[in-house]
Structure formats: structure tokens, C-alpha cells
Amino acid sequence: MDSVFRGSLFGRPVSVCTQCGKQFTHRKSYLQHLHVHTGATTCSTCGVTFDRKTRLNTHVKLYHPELTRQPSHLRARGPVLSAVRGGSASSGGGLPCPDCGKVYANSGSLSQHRRIHSGATLCRLCGTGLSRVAHLRRHLITCHRLSMEQALVVMRGDDT
């Protein structure tokens, strides 16, 4: 996919995407844009298209968390990590979560993870489990479109 040179914008050369006609003043921006046409930045669940893969990943984590329980690009943080460090849960090289079996390299990480199972960071609106209170607050504000005050009320569990 080549771009077509079409004059200048504010004194800068302009490239135009031959697929959609979008104009770019920077080659890097144009090359990043090409992912839109390959499908590499389109959500396979809902079809929303993003300009960057990182924005697609963020979207999937926020709006389709069931797909991100252990995404392939993060699997090295679970059982593979303990194997790399010289063991597995069965050989004593890692600390498994007694609730789900996910393996952690240290007790702090396991303790942080276990908050998901305790319900301390469970979204009362949709049931999504998050590992930190700050992440729950961000989830309520971004996914459920609550104000900070509304998010705090939901987190406290006030029924007023």
C-alpha cells in the first residue's frame, strides 16, 4: 500500500492513503495508519477499529475482560514465569493461587492477585474482577461512565 503525494499542508508535504483518502504530514503516522486496513487493529468481538494496536489492547481489557484473563502476550507472567525461574507450582518453584491455580513468583504478587477472589475489587455493576482498588475506580469511571463521586459510592457499597 503506497501513499500518493498531494502537495502540502501548512508548508509540509502531504501523503494520502490510497485506501481511504486520509492525509498525513508524517510518514510514521501514515505507516501506523496502515494497520487499520489490514485488520490488525480491529476488535474481533465488536468490530471497532483503532489507529494503534495498543489502543485495541486497552479496549479489549476494558470492554471485553473475559478475553483477557490470560492473553497470549502476557502468559509468561503466569506458570511460564515460574518455569523460567527454575520450577513450577508442583516442583515448588512458584506460589499457586489456591482459588484459580495461577502461579506467582513472590508472595506479594500472589497477595495482590487474591484480592480478585475476595471480592474487594469486584465491580458491583458488571462483575469484573480487578486486582487493585485504583483499577476498580478507573474501571467504574471509564467503562460505566461514572463520576469520581459516583464511583466512590459504588465502591463503598452504599445503597442510597
TrEMBL record:
One of its GO terms (cellular component) is nucleus. Gene3D superfamilies: Classic Zinc Finger (3.30.160.60). This is Zinc finger protein 787. It holds the Pfam family zf-C2H2. Keywords: Metal-binding, Repeat, Zinc, Zinc-finger. The keyword Mitochondrion does not apply. One of its GO terms (molecular function) is DNA-binding transcription factor activity, RNA polymerase II-specific. InterPro entries: Znf_C2H2_sf (IPR036236), Znf_C2H2_type (IPR013087). Signal peptide: none annotated. Residues 15-42, 41-64, 95-122 form the C2H2-type domain. Transmembrane segments: none annotated. It comes from the Eukaryota.
